[in-house]
Design brief:
Radius of gyration: 29 Å
Number of domains: 3
Number of helices: 21
CATH class of the largest domain: Alpha Beta
CATH superfamily of the largest domain: EIF_2_alpha
CATH topology of the largest domain: Alpha-Beta Plaits
Structural class: alpha/beta
Number of strands: 10
CATH architecture of the largest domain: 2-Layer Sandwich
Length: 495
Amino acid sequence: MNILIADDELLARTVLKHMLQDLNMDLNIVGEAADGRDLIGKMKQQPVDLAFIDIKMPDINGLDSIRILKNSYPNTNWVILSGYSKFEYAKEAMELGAVRYLLKPITLHELRKTITEISDVREKSHASMNIDFENVILAYFYKLISAEQLKETFVYSSSHFTGGIVYIDSFLDENLLSPLRLEITNKIHKIIEKYLRSGIYIAYFILPISNPVIICSWDPDKISFGEKTASNCFSEIWDLMHECRSDNFYPTLIKTGTCRCFKELCEKISKIQNSASLRVTLHNSGSLKLNELLEISSCISELDLKIVNLIIKLSETFKNKSYLSYAESLDKLKKIMSDEKINSREFVSSYCSFISYTLGIDLKKSQTVDDIINKLKKNQQKLLGYGIEPADIVSQAITFIHESYMNDISISEISESLNISPNYLSALFHKKTGETFMKYLTRIRLNKAHELLSLPNAKVNQVARQVGYSTVTYFAQLYKKEFGVCPSRDGSQYI
């Protein structure tokens, strides 16, 4: 908590400063003022969370100073220090918005009690506002409110923002990957809780494309402090990305950098989504900045861009066990990489690193085209264990479920796209997965709902819609049957 002391007596300021230091609390005395005019000037230079103000000061007294400043600095708490016990002074101070009227000399116990109570109130107030902030951000990105509606909220008028998207690259199937994602989500929550106490706003949610997003914002009167605090928060999340990395699980944080308004933030998040595949070229880092990707985007050759997109496609099709799609992408990659110049390309090492994490093969020391293609072909043979014909049909159906679970989908719709009968697909699906189509779809939806409900301030009705259920009651019944508890017991709310 940043504190300013205003008193015309140097001794009084010095004594109070030492008393505050003796409290051993998280307090930062950022300035002193000898009169009201000095106080006003100091506040304009650096707004504070708490100001101790002597009621009797030359030029502009303490009460008049608050009267001048209170509208410009609504987040500052004012504590009056006075040697006068007159009721009129105390009454006027309270009417002006002062949170305490303390008689000199104050005791250490009284000072500690005052700051503790103010801190508790500020923390609860900020926590409540952060819930509103997160709900508005989530509603906007899920298209539940329009840009015009957003402009009516305090989020739009916030001065500065910064954000980041987490991409998780892995060849693990969903059953193994989901607990790891949940673990990293819980660790990010702990980091966020720590920095929420500092006074910035933080939203953490999952985009419709399943990527976690962190957005920080701070008030206009705390620009330098907010930017530094948000930077420290993202630094800890970056460290977490490195800590969680393994041979089969590689999270990457891509940051927007500081944005001067919400519109700029949205534009940069969109640019991250459009250029995220270029992380393949920089896969030795657990944290990237948007500017790094844009720099690569401006100079990367058409050939390398095709390779990047094909490597991403190979990763996705291998994870989804789609033999035909994998084979098609590998064939295209082989033709492109037949270019004799590819061996000297600057991105080959990064390609090999990315392939190692996302396809589970060791290419760290393999630098030739033949090495890359041959090992990718061996992975293709692994997919034969799922069968080219019936199993690939099932894998296509599974891919469709994972991509479209949030929509109203049916086995008839999938069978039509695969040009087979619903009965045949139903029989194949049950034979290969051990589950009916509907049971599999329900499990995927509920696992996703469980992940979303682990986020702070999640609302059951919103989560139900996000995973494909229009009726909250039906969703709650399925959820309780699957997990043994009602979704509201995950710490969420219905509305």
